[in-house]
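Sample intake sheet
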Amino acid sequence: MQKFLPVGIQDFKTMIEGNFLYIDKTGYIWEMVRPPQGFYFLARPRRFGKSLLVSALGYLFEGRRELFGNLEIDKADREWKAHPVIKTDFSTINMTSPEKLEQSLLSHIHRLAEKHGIKNSIQSLPDCFAAFITRLAEKYNEPVVVLVDEYDKPLIDHLGKGEEHLSIAKENRDILKQFFGVLKGGDVSAALRFVFITGISKFARVSIFSDLNNLNDISMQEKYDSVLGYTDEELLYYFDMNISELSAKLDLSREELVRKIRSRYNGYRFTNRESTVYNPFSVIKLFDSGEFGNYWFETATPSFLINLIREQEYPIADIEHLELSAEDFTVYEVDDLELEPLLFQTGYITIRNYDGILYRLGYPNQEVKTSFLAYLYNHLIRSEDRRLRGIYKRLHTYLKEKKIGDFINAVKSILASIPYTQIANQGEDYYHTVFYLMLSASGVSVHTEVLTSRGRTDIAVEFGDKVYVIELKCNHSSELAIRQILKKKYYEKYLGSGRKIYLMGINFDSHKRTADDWQWGELEEYLEREA
C-alpha cells in the first residue's frame, strides 16, 4: 500500500504509526548514539527535518523499539534501554523579552519536573535546570538525554527589527549562555547520556556554547552530509510511485521530470564532499500538490537578511560568486552580523565548490534563486507604480519567444516606474543590478559575470535551445557592448553546446533613465560581418 505524504508531520511516532512515508535516516542516528556519551550540535536551514530528527531521537532513547522496526538502526547491535528525556522546543517558549524568556524556561522546567514527580521549586534558571537533570537521573537510575530544537529562535526573532530588538537579542543570548552552560557542570555532565542541540544558525555559537567546549558540531562533517534532506538515490527509491504518477499528470517523461525536480529543489551541499540533497519540504509539497511551486521560500520571508543587504549596500550580483574560508563559517555574533555566513546557514546559498582553501558558494537551485531575487526586487526596487511590478514576470516569455522588442519595452517600463530620487545619478553598477534582479525574478536561468578564458561577460541567459550573451553599458552605446563581446569572445563558453547563441548589447542613459540604445542578433551573423 502506498504511504501517505507527510505534509507538515514532525512527530516520528505519528509518522510511523500513521503509515506516512519516512525516509530512513536512522543510520546517521546510530552513528551519533553509539558512543556511551555524546554532545552534538547541528545547524540546518528551516524546513529541513530538524524537528523530526529531534522527535526520532526522543523516541529512540525512550526505548520505543517498536517504532523503529524495519529501519536501519533496528539491525544494529544495541540495547534498547529507556532513558529519561528532556525535550525543549524554543518555538514554544515565550521570548518577547529577556524576562519572559527566563520565566518561560523556568516554568517549562517546573512542568517537566512535576510530570516526573520531582519536587523542584528553585527560581534561579541555571540552578533549577541543573537540579532537575541530576534528580531525574537519580530517580530513574539512568543518565539523562537532553534534546533542544530551535535553540536560536530567541535571537533570530529579534534580528533586523531595529536597536530595541537587537538589545533584546543580546540579553536573550546571555540567558541562553547560562541555560546551556549548565550542561558542562561536573555533576550535571556526569548525569548525561546524550545531548543534541539544533537550530538554523551558528552565528551565536561562540558566545552561547563557550562553556560547553565538548559540543561536537556536525554541521559540516562529511559523514553527516545527508543526515537531513533527500539524496538523489533516496528521491528515486522512496518516491518511485510518486514520480510515475506526476510524470503522467504533467505529460513529461520520467527523465524529464526528474531533471526538472533536480533543477528546482536539489543542490544543497553542507560539507567538503561533493554530495547534494533536496529540500525535503519542497519535494513533499511537489508530490502532494502535483505542481511545481516555490514552497520552501513561501513558508517564511528573509526580512532581516533584506535589511542587512540594504544597510550594507551589498552588491547583489556577487551573491552567486561568493568565496569564503573555513574560518568565515565560525564567526557568528548577534552584534556583528556577517551577511555571507548567514546566507549560507539560512539556506539561501550553499557550497558549490571547495578547492581545499576557499569555499565557492552560490544559490542551491532555481527555487531559491528565483524566489529570493524576486523578493529582493520587490523590496529594493521600490516602484511608484505597483501595477508595473508584474511586468518583470513576462521577461522570461519575451526572451524565450525572441520577442526582443517587447522585452526592451518591458525593461523601459520598469526603469520608468522607479522613483527619480532612487535612480537619479546612478551608474552602470546600479543598472546592472536592476537588470539582473528583474531577469532573475522572472524565473529565467540567468548568470552574472560568467567566467570565460578572456574575461567575464555581464549577463548570460540560458534556455534549453538558446543562450543570450548580454553586455550592458551606461552612457556609451550598444555597438560598444557588442564589440566587447566579440573581442573578448564571451560566447566561447557556449560553443559546441548545441544551443543557438544570441548576442545582445544594451546601453542605459542615466540622464534619461532608460535603455536608449540596444541591438541583438545571432552570433553567426556578427561573425560574418567581422570576417
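Comment: DSSP finds 23 helices and 13 strands in the chain. The chain has a mean pLDDT of 90.
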